[in-house]
Amino acid sequence: MKKYELTKIGEFHTNHNEDYLISNEIGFNKIMIAVMDGCSMGIDSHFASTLIGKILKKVSTEIHYKEFAEKTENSIEQILKEVTRSLFHKLKELKNELSLERDELLSTMILGIVDREEKVAEIITIGDGLIICDGVITEYEQDNKPDYLGYHLSGKFEDWYEKQNQRLRLSKIEDLSISTDGIFTFKKFDAEEYDQVTESEIIDYLLIDRQEKESKNMLLKKIIRIEKKWGLKPSDDLTIIRLMIE
Fold first, then answer.
1. CB-based burial label for 28 (10 Å; 0-12, 13-18, 19+)
2. CATH of 2-244, one of 1.10.287.40, 3.60.40.10, 3.40.50.2300, 2.70.70.10
3. Distance between CA 207 and CA 68 in Å, rounded?
4. Which of 4, 83, 122, 127 could bridge to 76 as Cys pair (CB 3.0-4.6 Å)?
5. Cβ(21)–Cβ(109) under 8 Å?
6. At how many degrees (to 10) do helices 45-70 and 76-97 cross?
7. What is the pLDDT of residues 97-146, one digit of tens each?
């Protein structure tokens, strides 16, 4: 399996990249992947996405070690729910311990559990973002009003989880990408003349095209070429994880 990662601050942001990413082993032949996008209208928006990423890393490591020690193997559906449950309760705990306001915990999230051997994945999206699997595009767009997890920490996890309908079960995976919505924000920032390109062509180039697949810096190279050839940069923060399972 080849893994490519990219997180880049948007041109409209000056102090912090409000996105975050995490990929971590979470069991036999399984990997957890996640991209987060902090709410720009929230308080310290980079904090929420980073905190969620750090919690996910801890939770996935604990599950990985537990499965190894107990010689058990859970389904990717079970693992996804357990990771999300642990995240929910840890955020609620930290909110109380640190006296955090709700607006300090607002971040979108695409969270997936991928079985490399079986080539299947279970993915949940909280808020908006983009998923592409073998050329098939799934976009979640909530009209700039994402239903953040941070809005629901005062309730019960089971009640909230059962209402989540932005779920994907993928099979026969060969090429899987998850991205924050910065993928839709490429713009020109100078007056020079460049070749013309559409938004769909940019998405195809970054998340479907396989040029440079032998380089671990494939995504960064493509971002540089987009700027040089088409004169475009993402105005919002952009974060991508792409897996090629061969």
1. middle
2. 3.60.40.10
3. 33
4. 122
5. no
6. 130
7. 999 999 999 999 999 999 999 999 999 999 999 999 999 999 999 887 89
